[in-house]
Amino acid sequence: VQESAQDLQVARRRLPVFMVKNRLIDEIKKNDTMILIGETGSGKTTQIPQLIHEQRLEGAGAIAVTQPRRVAAITIALRVAAEMNTEIGSIVGYSVRFEDVTSPRTKVKYLTDGMLLREAIVDPLLKKYSIIVLDEAHERTISTDVLFGIVKLAQKERNEKKQIPLKVIIMSATMDVDSFRKYFHNCPVIYLEGRTFPVTIYHTKTKQDDYQYAAVCTIFQLHATTPANHDFLVFLTGQEEIETVMYNIKQIAKEATGPPMRVCPLYAGLPPAKQLQVWREAPPGTRKVILSTNIAEASVTIPNIKCVIDTGVVKERTWCGVSGAERLAVRVCSQAAGWQRAGRAGRTQPGAAYRLFPAKDFAARPHHHTPEIVRCPLASSLLLLLAAGIDPSTFPLIDPPPLDSVKASLLLLKEFGAIESEANPKLTVLGKKMSMFPIDPKYSKVLLSAPEYNCLEEALSLVAVLSSENVFHTPMHKREEAFKVKQKFLSPLGDHITLLNVFKAFCKAPLKKQWCKENFLNHKNLTYACDVRQQLLTICQKLNLPVSSCGQAHDQLLKCLLCGLFTNCAWLRGGGGAGGAGGGGAAGAVARRYVTATGRAAALHPGSALQALRPPPALLYSELLLTGRAYMLTASAIQPHWLHQVAPDYARRCRTNR
Ligand code: ADP
Ligand code: MG
Fold first, then answer.
1. Which atom of ligand 1 is closest in space to residue 79's alpha carbon?
2. pTM flag (> 0.90)
3. What is the model's pLDDT at position 592?
4. Residue of the CA atom closest to atom 21 of ligand 1
């Protein structure tokens, strides 16, 4: 991966941004606000902040560059530090949730949009920064949408108060420019000349039932018929799926004809060292196959891709009716995303994109994806706005969220006790405390409820683990062995206590790396959870919360968890009890036997600790995943009457509870 400083400079000079550098610098000097549109890979994210800094346009302030994704913020900051030949955390740094790699000297700071939003609570004028670059604006995450409003207000107020002016640069690959221009007072739009090659698009003739299977088949068809120096990029929806497909490819590759293959995964939870594999050239005669989530769609560019294989789906968080419940769902991508993905094949030479769905399906898809603010839960953003002292009802947004979504979120905040009433959304003392935690309000509610249940010790560990990526590491070829080893952590109460057992054992283990290996656990993610726990503990201590332990009284902990997750309950169909389809046992017996608060049929995830047990009458789950079916991820057994105890208002309005 080591590239010499000279190589890096040569590569920089070849980028389209570099070629129009003088014009760009002039425009940046001239305008307070501008929109910059340029093909993915043209050098916007890595180069623009460097150009600004080379000219010292930031003056005494710093440059903030936002990214919707944590991985992108980190990898890009590392790349830019290497290009500038400096250590990460000095002049160039990054700040993502629970990880701040910056110093007072940092001038170019890459951060997630969520982190900049958090900074705005403490300082709504964002005075640290003289230039703010809102990158990947086309993604339209809630945090970016809210930041548009925050920077607009900050710019205005800093002007009025004659403070150091704030320059705002909006960057994007593709964008509905008109509405953005209007929103930013008809600011100038600068288009970077694209540099792409034609990409031939192929569709399947018929609809594919199983896109993972279709992807593997297509990979091997192409593998047998195209030269080895043609690298493939395959779009999938998440880590688990990528690991499954990777395993299948490796199995088939042993017997398949064609050149050797190097398969590289790319997803958010991947350790940085493994992420860098993606950029390493494969040895001559070896084909590189990259299996990626939609992070490779626009946030990061991988050179030399010749074939794109597009499953046409993406995993998205969505909001689900007035219940206030949210879920993860695998959905079809927009046409814009389809073109963007296909375009990845034409960066350095003409390429091809293989869409695993028929052309008429593509034509029926929406042109653009719906901004998150229109389809996602708002409680978290509302809480932040209120904490920053901003009135949500007059806050300027490009696309206002649906009214019933705002209502549902306010109702949820009311039921948490975070605001005084829906009509008067003023933060209560509890609400202010909730906003101090950099986590979802449902989890800050759990931590703040913990003293009442004497379980802050355990709640901190659990919330920390739930804030990390998967702690179990199950290699496909050692599934059975891993399953056996996992037994010693299992709790009959379900996945939350199982996770707690894992975390506690990890903390006690003397040789952690070795121990994780023996127990099929992910060392990096558990270490991260420890770090998160420490940071959450510091906030709890600032708030003077008593850190006591419930010991083995795990019911207490589950009740406490329910205080934040009361929207995530499910009930056994037919009221539970004996009878039913065989009273549990095999995995199939429990499938689809639950119904959620919104009336959706849902099944325990196959990996749940509860699978082997008699199905409990009621469950609490951390997340609902919709693929073809609805799966409850991380579920625990609860007593049905607990809901009335811990969240009486919600229980009253939730009629499904029988
Ligand atoms: P844009 O923001 O316009 O999409 P970027 O600034 O992200 O473009 O990327 C510019 C170029 O830098 C790309 O062609 C990409 O291949 C290269 N690049 C970016 N990050 C890395 C990295 N970590 N390792 C190697 N090359 C990289
Ligand atoms: Mg970019």
1. 23
2. no
3. 53
4. 79
Q: Whose CA is closest to 385, among 408, 421, 419? A: 419
* Residues 268 and 71: beta-carbon distance below 8 Å: yes
Q: Percent of the chain at pLDDT above 70?
A: 95
Phi, psi of 491 (to 5 degrees): -115, 140
- Centre of ligand 2 to C-alpha 282, Å, is 24
Q: Give the range among 343-347, 434-438, 513-517 with minimum mean pLDDT.
A: 343-347
Neighbours of 208 (CB within 10 A): 17
Mutate which of 18, 24, 46, 50 to test ligand 1's pocket (most atoms within 8 Å of Cβ)? 46
CA of 70 to the centre of ligand 1 (A): 16
Q: How far is the CA of 20 from the centre of ligand 1 (A)?
A: 17
- Give distance in angstroms: CA of 288 to centre of ligand 2: 23
Sheet holding 351-355, edge to edge: 199-203, 351-355, 305-310, 231-235, 287-292, 261-266
Dump pLDDT digits (tens) for 494-504. 999 999 999 99
CA 85 centroid distance within chain = 30
CA distances from 444 to 106, 539, 554, 557 (A): 30, 11, 19, 14
In ligand 1, which atom is closest to the CA atom of 42? 3
- State the Cα–Cα distance between residues 494 and 142, nearest whole angstrom: 33
Of the ranges 188-192, 458-462, 626-630, 653-657, the best mean pLDDT one: 458-462
Cβ-based neighbours of 503, under 8 Å, separated by 6 or more: 461, 462, 464, 465, 471, 526, 529
> Are the CB atoms for 115 and 103 separated by under 8 Å?
no
